[in-house]
Amino acid sequence: MTQASDGMLWLTSPKGLYSFDGVTFKRQRSVYGASPLSQNISAVRALPGKRIAVGYSFGGLSIFSPSAVTHFRAGKDFPAGTVYAIASSNDEIYACTTTGLVQLRPDGWRPVGKHSLACRPGVRGRFR
Q1: Cβ distance 50 to 8 under 8 Å?
Q2: CB 31: neighbour CB atoms within 10 A?
Q3: pTM for the whole thing?
Q4: DSSP string, 46-60
Q5: pLDDT at 13
Q6: S-S: 40 plus which of 48, 57, 86, 94, CB 3.0-4.6 Å?
Q7: CB 125 within 8 A of CB 96
Q8: pLDDT of residue 93
Q9: Which residues contact 29 (CB under 8 A, 6 or more apart)?
Q10: Rounded Cα gap, residues 78 and 81, in angstroms
C-alpha cells in the first residue's frame, strides 16, 4: 500500500490494483491510462513526480507517469522473480525481488552490493 501526493491510496492484490480516494475503493485496470503488464500485482509505491511504480508477482516492474509508462520485463531488462517491495529515496528506486535487491541506475537495474541476497515476503524497506 502506498499514498500518492494527491492523497490517493493504492493497494495491490493478486487480482489487480485498487485505489481508495477516502470514500470509495475502485479496481484500476490502468494507471494514467496505461495498462499494467499483468493484473497479478505484488507491490506498489508512489514516487516523486506523480509517478507510480508497480511490481508483479511473476516478475517485472512498471513505472507510470501522467505522460508515459516504462515497462521493465522480467528476465529481459529486470531480474526474474516476484517483486516483494519497492522503495525510493530522493531520485533512487530500489526493488526487492526473489533474486535480490536491485537499484535502477542510468544503465538499467543493477544488484545492490557485491552479493545481493534474495528477499522474502513481508520485507519492508525504509530509506532515509
Answers
A1: no
A2: 22
A3: 0.87
A4: EETTTEEEEEETTS-
A5: 86
A6: 57
A7: yes
A8: 97
A9: 16, 35, 39
A10: 9
Single-letter amino acid code for the residue at 85: A
Q: What is the pLDDT along the chain (128 residues), one digit of tens a residue?
A: 999 999 999 999 888 999 999 999 999 999 999 999 999 999 999 999 999 999 999 999 999 999 999 999 999 999 999 999 999 988 899 999 998 899 999 999 999 976 655 666 655 544 44
The CATH class for the domain spanning 2-111 reads mainly beta
* Domain residue extents for the chain: 2-111
Which pLDDT does position 126 carry in this prediction?
A: 46
Look at the block and give the residue holding cell 517483486: 83
Residue corresponding to grid cell 493478486: 14
Strand order in the sheet with 92-97: 83-89, 92-97, 100-105, 108-111
Q: Which three cell numbers stand for residue 31?
A: 494507471
Grid coordinates representing 117 are 541476497
Q: Residue 60 and residue 37: Cα distance in Å, rounded?
A: 8
Q: How far apart are CA 128 and CA 114, in angstroms?
A: 22
